[in-house]
Amino acid sequence: MTAVAGLQELFTRNLRQSGIYIAFVAIVGLFAILTNGMLLSPGNMTNIVLQYSYILILAIGMVIVIIGGHIDLSVGSVVALTGAVSAVVVIRAGQPWWVGILAALAVGLLVGAWQGFWVAYVGIPAFIVTLAGMLLFRGLTLQVLNNVSLSPFPPEYQRVAGGFLNGFLGGQGIDVFTLVIAAIAVVGYAVSQLRSRRGRIKYRQTVETMPLFVLRLVLVGAVVMAFAYQLARSRGLPIVLIILGVLVIAYTIVTTKTVFGRHVYAIGGNLSAAQLSGVKVKRINFWIFVNMGFLAAVAGVVYSSRSNGAQPAAGNMFELDAIAACFIGGASTTGGVGRVTGAMVGGLIMGVMSNGMQLMGVDQSVQQVIKGLVLLLAVAFDIFNKRRVGASR
Amino acid sequence: MASPILEMQSITKTFPGVKALQDVSLSVEHGEIRAICGENGAGKSTLMKVLSGVYPHGTYSGTILFEGAEVEFGSINDSEDEGIVIIHQELALVPYLSIAENIFLGNERKHRGLVDWNRANSEAADLLARVGLDELPVTPVSQLGVGKQQLVEIAKALSKQVKLLILDEPTAALNDADSEHLLGLLRQLRQQGITSIIISHKLNEIAEIADSTTIIRDGRTIETLDMRSGEVTQERIIRGMVGRDLDHRYPPHESHPGNEVLRIEDWTVHHPTQPQRVVVDRANLSVRAGEIVGIAGLMGAGRTELAMSVFGRSYGSHITGKVFMHGKEVSTRTVSEAIDHGIAYATEDRKKYGLNLIEDIRTNISAASLRTLSRAGWVNGNEEIKVAEDYRASMNIKAPTVMALTGKLSGGNQQKVVLSKWIYTDPDVLILDEPTRGIDVGAKYEIYTIINRLADAGKAVVVISSELPELLGICDRIYTLAAGRVTGSVSRENATQENVMELMTKERDLVR
Predict the structure, then answer these.
(1) Residue B231 DSSP code
(2) Do A259 and B355 touch (CB under 8 A)?
(3) CB of B482 within 8 Å of any CB in chain A?
(4) Least confident of A10-19, A303-312, A324-333, B368-377
(5) Which secondary structure element, helix H or strand E, spans residue B221, and what is its range?
């Protein structure tokens, strides 16, 4: 009775989702060739991770905001504000590094609660609330910093974004610890996939054919191990990659497997229907923004750590990169559609392109033009796809 | 009679995987009113879209002759240039523009590139007089009721020198008086030589107004009946539509009411934005287990407002009164409280308020019961699919899997998804608001059967409907509402169209 889906069916059914992965692979391949392999060199791959981690962290929160049918224009300013608070606490007041991090996270939660209050309970559109927030929190950043930059952070704080875990298990030129962690991750992925497959079979649902299933696991495993191998040849496992990995896994689960996540999709898909189904819309909207504030604070800590200080202009335009990542990753402008993994791939596409073009020495102005076009094309492709699916019915 | 104004010859239209129209032929005489009947999904709308150029020439096979000449429409504009105007079920008016602006939208009365408002307003006034609408041309459309908006649409069609007017479900959202006016207008237009094609599920209207009726079933024209003789009965049309005899339009059912489940006392609701306006006025009613109770009332009587205000105060302001479940007073301040107390409400507008159309059947069925399906905030996805599959089977939802998007389903199947969602919350009382609106005859019968099954399972069922025959056919008892007040409670044995209608139209003063 268990139906089995073939390769073609999977492809056509998921073209919307798989399209983005195909595009990602193509872009990586393209830039690998254009940069004579420099893109995939150990040092550069480490760099990409360090350079775009905070955008990816923001994109996680942003995609949830967007699925809920909102937008958040203030995250760049919140990144600056939380980083500034942390710098004031650690550098100016001489508190330990972790106090600074806690202070930043607390400010992020407060900011989120503030915006959530106006959006959810007063009913002001998020576009307005966060546009106001963008100005408000940028201004507060300047106030907190007295218009001057603060640096440097103590070494422990710098490790958040610049640190590596390596050398625990030795290895000559290749960090074994990194490979072991990656291997554990791959095995964990395989086990969870297998368990979910078993569950689906038990409930008589469609699953991939066994060879296809194995092929997928092998493919994912190979990519992860190759990536880890390159990291291992460089400086080991970046701490920020661990933070990012934990966040991605946690929020993928939150969006797909929890009642909260399902309610977010319900609100974005049809607000009135969600309300009449007993979804506590105000409460959900409030927490969407609290969560965004929290993740913006995490990004603020990572960014301040990476830039080893707090600047008044930190985080400028980050909101646009985060929003672009979500839309390239298949989120819908009208809400109700989107995935955390999609937003991650969307962010990586932007990251790989910027990085690749930098390596090639492409002028900054041309880079902007190309990034703009990619965003436009990605959404155009999405709309085209929807029409195609719509017409085939 | 003269030559036909329209001839569609062996039209075939295929979508990938589906033959929507197969060798359909249709011939309409000059100046007649032609009704087109068929179940939902039979191909009526597709045929009209082919005719009006929504599906451009080349995407279908077959020929269309209009006024004797072959036409090939590439878009709606082409067909409108020939005088073919289609008025869709969902009205296409801009709410904040005036009547005149709407009438001439895209067709502005210009003088040297600038809009000539004097001419536009005076021509609009002439058109309004023709359709019998007593409003100023400068009135914003948003201030008009649905019935009047419908007339504006027709005035708009007239402004385009319409020869063939196509109306898709024109009276679906209208009350009886507005429907009557609209049908009268169509007769009047017929005298002026305008041909009409009307798609409708309301067979009594068709019997009243149509000169002939074409029946479409499964993408084919089955037959065209001449209605002028007056011998064609509604049963005859239904037989053609479903391809079999429907002995009873309403499944036979005998209720065995038990204890009282829901009681509402002195329920008063004010308008949400105009608090001085009383929408529901001291309403009292009660429903027993296993009983099917109807709520009848004209548009604006407060039927939906009553139901929605009880269901988590989803409508209105300054709400006072008491709700009792099983004899105990309960609070239904929020929707989740109402659900917890065993109340379910399936809305009259399933697309707008009932379903998440961009999500699949599974997600919609579980939407109100995620707590049942989850432990500590974690949704059991496999169990969820199993539940949804069970409902797909037991409710006969026609879709390949529960992963199909609800937006792609027909009206009847969408309604079954909505019902599944509420039945899965395991309520004691189900309030069904217009459960069969916009649904074809076959699916209606299925919905009635489901309602009977619910009553047999001991649920209290409240059915709100603007179709009196439906209430008379399925309810054990009918409450009548007029201007926000309960004006009567009529048992099945005593209920006739006439006495229920009389209670529905009872004047305010007489109630006291």
Answers:
(1) -
(2) no
(3) no
(4) A10-19
(5) strand B220-226
